[in-house]
Design a protein that fits this description.
about 475 residues, alpha/beta, Rossmann fold, 2 domains, nine-stranded mixed β-sheet, six-stranded parallel β-sheet, 20 helices, disordered N terminus
Length: about 475
């Protein structure tokens, strides 16, 4: 084990990582946080499942270990690099990971063998942690979300010396629930299937395993760490999280500020910065033209870059589109999700030509264009562990309008009168999460937009925020070193 004067070694275990494979914000975190830690002197490596996109994107792959039988088939462990320079360990098990499309879903349904698929990832993570596969003994294993929740369970089942364990909850709503009769196939002892272990209302709960058997539990914002210990937001695990409250904490995410940088972004038509935002007007005009919106500099342009789900408050946005249009605003939407919401936005675009534009799906360059060209970004989530799009909005001077929940409450300073006068307001918050409160927030946005000096102050304050991984990485370093010092 490393002491404070030696290089800390760290194994991340996760199901996705940008730029190799991405379905959501987890990939952005796993792609950026280890790199930030590497800059701080940490020997950080990331274990990923060998989905086709991961295998295709792996640079300089070398076989590091062979496993003759892993949950029903042979497997190999590759070491290589992501295009970003991240040190990656890939579990290549074609019988588990050679699947097309979404890594978790088969159409609209969850893949029925996800338990075996991610148990295998966790088991291999536990074996690497014990030094049995790569001859490497990490000081700390940092597992992320339910897909990696069993790492701690496998280590607990074996017993003996092990690295320190950190488990991060990115979204408590997704817990990895599977039938109890699958326990034997997972290779875990029956004794673990109990209330103080893996059992959750008669099912196996992968995320609960991470909470129960890890040394520290983190979430992706301090407010969310408190919210999930309440019955209202605890998703059935609030009691357990309260009992472990002394090891539960929140650290706000960052974003990769080299990827999200309006001064150097190749996906936007004109660069700009906090020193001069003139280029943002060109980005707005280009975006309006591209999406078929009226090219009007004085029309406040609101954007949405989101999964289209009830959690994200998408129904609230749909209900208030007539208000946005009536007050002279425009709306551009990028996302996918519930069919009813997709259809609702498509119909809104037809009903309000030149005022509403909808792109169903996800397009990374278009996401950059929206952040650069819009005036406001809407994030009215009913709960939000951290949120990343509002951080991108801050970086691009696209003023966030957010519900006062989770990481949104932690990252946005509301444009109340005192904050406006002090020049520190970075966005607009509202509560409760209702159509009425959201409507009032939109009215405030129109008022601020019409006051050009006030809007410019909010834009500048937003763009001055440090949304990089520098501060969060420092907080994680404190957490890791605190764990090591607990020997």
């Amino acid at each position: 084990m490393a002491d404070a004067s030696e290089q800390l070694s760290l194994l991340f275990v996760a199901s996705e990582c940008y730029p190799l494979i991405k379905t959501g914000g987890l990939a952005d975190v796993i792609g950026a946080l280890p790199l930030a830690l590497m800059k701080a002197g940490v020997n950080a490596r990331v274990l990923l499942p060998g989905f086709p996109a991961v295998m295709k994107g792996l640079k300089k792959p070398v076989v590091a270990a062979v496993i003759p039988d892993l949950f029903g088939g042979p497997a190999q462990i590759f070491r290589g690099k992501a295009a970003t320079g991240l040190d990656v360990i890939v579990l290549d098990a074609p019988h588990l990971y050679n699947i097309s499309g979404n890594p978790y879903m088969d159409g609209a349904k969850e893949r029925t063998d996800n338990d075996i698929r991610f148990a295998a990832l966790a088991f291999v993570g536990s074996e690497i942690a014990r030094g049995n596969l790569l001859g490497w003994h990490p000081d700390i294993v940092h597992a992320h979300d339910w897909q990696a929740g069993l790492v701690a369970a496998y280590l607990a089942a074996v017993g003996g010396p092990r690295p320190r364990l950190v488990f991060t909850i990115h979204n408590l709503a997704f817990q990895g629930l599977f039938p109890a009769d699958r326990l034997a196939k997972l290779g875990l002892p029956q004794a673990m299937f109990q209330q103080e272990g893996l059992e959750y209302w008669g099912q196996i709960n992968f995320l609960k395993a991470g909470v129960v058997y890890s040394d520290r539990v983190t979430t992706v914002s301090p407010t969310y760490a408190r919210e999930i210990q309440t019955e209202a937001q605890g998703m059935g695990l609030h009691g357990l999280l309260r009992r472990r409250s002394d090891v539960v904490s929140g650290i706000v995410n960052g974003i990769d500020d080299t990827v999200w940088n309006p001064e150097s972004d190749s996906d936007i038509p004109a660069p700009y910065s906090v020193r001069s935002v003139k280029g943002k007007a060109k980005c707005k005009a280009a975006l309006q033209a591209r999406l078929g919106l009226e090219v009007k500099a004085d029309a406040p342009l609101f954007c949405v870059v989101s999964r289209l789900t009830t959690q994200k408050g998408i129904d609230l946005i749909l209900s208030l589109i007539p208000d946005i249009v009536r007050q002279g605003g425009q709306l551009a939407v990028l996302g996918s999700g519930d069919e009813a919401f997709e259809h609702g936005f498509e119909m809104a675009a037809k009903d309000h030509p030149g005022r509403v534009a909808t792109f169903i799906g996800y397009d990374e360059p278009l996401a950059h264009s929206l952040q650069a060209g819009a005036d406001f970004i809407l994030v009215p989530s009913r709960f939000e562990p951290c949120g990343l799009t509002q951080l991108c909005g801050l970086r691009y001077g696209t003023v966030p309008i957010v519900a006062r929940v989770g990481g949104l409450a932690d990252t946005i300073i509301d444009a109340n009168e005192a904050a406006l006068d002090a020049g520190v307001a970075t966005g607009i918050q509202f509560a409760p999460v209702s159509a009425e409160a959201f409507s009032f927030a939109l009215e405030r946005a129109f008022e601020i937009y019409e006051d050009a000096p006030a809007f410019a102050r909010v834009q500048r304050a937003a763009m001055k925020q440090d949304v990089s991984w520098t501060a969060p990485a420092g907080h994680y370093m404190q957490l890791y070193h605190g764990l090591m010092a607990a020997d």
